[in-house]
Amino acid sequence: MSVSTNTSVLLVGNFLSGNVGNHSVCEDLAGKLESVGLNVFTASDQRPRAARLLDIVTTTWKRRHEYSAANVDVYSGLGFGLAESACFVLRAAGKPYALTLRGGNLPDFSKRWPRRVDRLLRHAAVVTTPSEYLQQRMERYRNDIQLLPNPLHLNRYSFCLRDKPAAKLVWVRSFHHLYNPTLAIRLVADLQPTFPDIQLTMVGPDKGDGSFQATQRAALELGVSDRVRFTGGVPKTQIPDHLAQADVFINTTNFDNTPVSVLEAMACGLCVVSTDVGGMPDLVDHNQNALLVPPDDTAAMGTAVRRVLNEDGLAGKLSQNAHAFASQFDWPAILPKWVRLFETLSEKATH
After folding, report:
1. What single string gives the DSSP state of each residue in 303-320?
2. pTM: predicted TM-score of the whole model, two decimal places
């Protein structure tokens, strides 16, 4: 792929893998853009909120003569304020920029802060999102939001058909109350009488809101601590190994967008059971490549997992269809779209 030598970009998002273990989509994007010849600057790898804000603002301003365009990831809550700050500096610097809507809770946040959301989206040259859900829910603020799916390094994920699955479950997410990790523990307790050999591996860093400790306590109180293994945050390169050791992937979140962890599980051929929230019903096809259940419903999730483990032909169908679906998200299909976006923005910067 050939790119303009004048194309240089600033990516504002979560570059925290060195601190929390999770490797974000924007970190992958930075590496991929550099691999095809773009000059890439990033912010921020600082975890404390104040240090993060300072790093984003100072990098955006001090590097303004070195990049021609920028992309800012947008989340709800305090993360929205970081995006606002970055965009304020970008406008002051006269730099064209795109926004990428990532926060699954943005539609609810927008109802509380419509003027802030309208102002942020209106000033961007381009707005993208990896989620059809957010594309539809946020169109009142921008009716030209572009869909740019979260990509995968598909060659890193070995496919194995789960046509005869065992009760080996895996959960991959940060420990945060929004992702409801204790539901996974309640699920194990619900299933253990039927599947005494059940195992759950929970992969992800502690986000510091007490969810990790609450999940550990729940495992002890429900008598399933010997059935649950906590790995903590792990490098992105180790995720496929953890997925390969399981047959059923459970996604317990109360809010979601287009989670890469679900796509990774599908690429490996795991049978996905997820809460029916946010962008999930737009991402997957219920009863075809995944099973969807109401949020925070232990009984419903237990019923779905039992179907996967007991219903003839279901697991094999879900596994095969999941892998076929995930194949469309390979990086070679997505990267050219990002390159074209940044080249177009950079051209605006020269006029």
Report:
1. HHHHHHHHSTTHHHHHHH
2. 0.80
